[in-house]
Amino acid sequence: MFAARERQIKSFGKHIADIQHTQLRKLLQTARNTEWGEKYKFREISGYHAFCERVPLSIYEDLHPFIERMINGEKNILWPSIVKWYAKSSGTTNDRSKYIPVTCEILNGCHYKGGFDTVALYIRNNPETRFFSKKGLILGGSHSPSALNKKAHCGDLSAVLLQNLNPCVNFIRVPRKEIILMDEWEAKINAIVENTWNKDVVSISGIPSWMLTLIKAILNKAGKETLHEVWPNLEVFFHGGVGFEPYKPQYEKLLPSGKMHYMETYNASEGFFGIQDDPSDKSLLLMPDYGIFYEFIPMNDLLTTDNPKTIPPEDVKVGINYATVITTAGGLWRYCIGDTVRFTSLFPHKFVITGRTKHFINAFGEELMIDNAEKGIHKACLETGAIVRAYTAAPLFILEAGKGRHQWLIEFEKQPESIDRFATVLDEALKQLNSDYDAKRYKGISLLIPEIIPARENLFYDWLKEDGKLGGQHKVPCLSNNRDLINKLLTMNH
Strand pairing partners for 407? Predict the structure, then answer.
């Protein structure tokens, strides 16, 4: 069933440029008669350079008026067909929510294809698996699909995917569909526990932070210490959405089995982008044939240039932070998704997610990315015995001294014996990971040692609940270049 696809995936390294430019030609051909295609004269675009010259980079605000018309039933706007489904994503400056078109092409040729490939690669790496003989638990979004109007529906991406899933999949999935699509998060967790704690589960899928909430509720219901006491055949956790490193110690404590596997995927509202194809390598394999054409912008250019230049996958280099730009069969054209990546190898193209273009700290020229923060937190936990549940960090300006520092608000599952020691280890790890941070920390010339503030229990959970963001793809921003979020959380912390 999976062998032919495994062979195709092996060929990505040799043919990524051909595959990607074929994707671009198909996208331009399909959308040439749309309003967007007519506006930018897709018929006259002969290659990548002409595409860059003709079609501008876009963000959600640029496409929003066109997406609104699609939601109201118009076709041939950004994509030829009438689009009935929209993935509801985190909001923008002007709107509480974004609505990302989920066309039939992106649904089947990207999201579901990515799920199929994830299983194919897992089976290739674990031929002894019993994946299809037991149940799989998917912890999806907290918003069930709802009507935007008579012609369109929306929901968290996971809810949209589950709503349109082939009914045959329900034979190997728990909980029941009506439970996983419940709106109210806390009631849904209780219902999932009651429906699944006594089932034979072999795989779990979801965001690490929210899956921990469910696991603890399952253990509380069953009166057990570890999850394998409840689900003895559990063998794999497919995870994504946030970095896994800060949560790994907690999972190893709750799943202390040598047979447990962890596999990361990169599936966003806009598309399915990457899969961890090698268990010994944390990098993700870029999936080039999902109806998506990729471009990348060096982060230095994005931060310093008003008109940054994009480059195709075949021209990227290892070790540079890039902002990701996508053109998709979902009607997104040269769309800046806001994620940053760093390639770890080329041909095949493998990468790690380093953060968000808006979620970083560069108040003092340190260019601290989420990837640095996650690795630093992980190192500090290993050396101090701490366990971190959630955190956020922001710059703190000490005007009278003409200096500053990073202020970290951390909710500990297990607090270190010495907060100062934790701060020192974190600081040293960040120096090793980030030369810009190290330079700014040199003799404390402009940047002082980080300040660690322990958060009260459930602070971040309460903030998410107050903001209507429990469950699903919602997560706490780890880094901010301003103090808006941390000031609100500090107020709640007292």
Answer: 394, 451
pLDDT at site 93: 40
The residues near 220 (Cβ < 8 Å, ≥ 6 apart) are none
Strand blocks (E) in 34-155: 85-90, 97-102, 135-138, 146-149, 152-155
Cα-Cα end-to-end distance for the chain:
56
Tens of pLDDT, residue by residue over 322-341, are 999 999 999 999 999 989 99
- Rounded-to-integer distance, Cα 182 and Cα 179, Å: 5
DSSP 111: I
Cα–Cα distance, 376 to 364 (Å, whole number): 19
Tokens read off for 351? 């990468």
CA dihedral (62, 64, 65, 69) in degrees, to 10, reads: 140
Rg (CA), the chain: 23
| Helices (H) then strands (E): counts for the chain | 18, 18
How far apart CA 323 and CA 389 sit, in angstroms, is: 28
- Please work out, in degrees rounded to the nearest 5, the angle formed at the alpha carbon of residue 467 by the alpha carbons of 461 and 469: 65
DSSP string, 207-218: -HHHHHHHHHHH
Which helix (H) or strand (E) element contains residue 201? strand 201-206
What pTM did the predictor assign?
Answer: 0.82
Taking 3-state DSSP, the helix, strand and coil percentages for the chain, each rounded to the nearest 5, stand at: 40, 25, 35
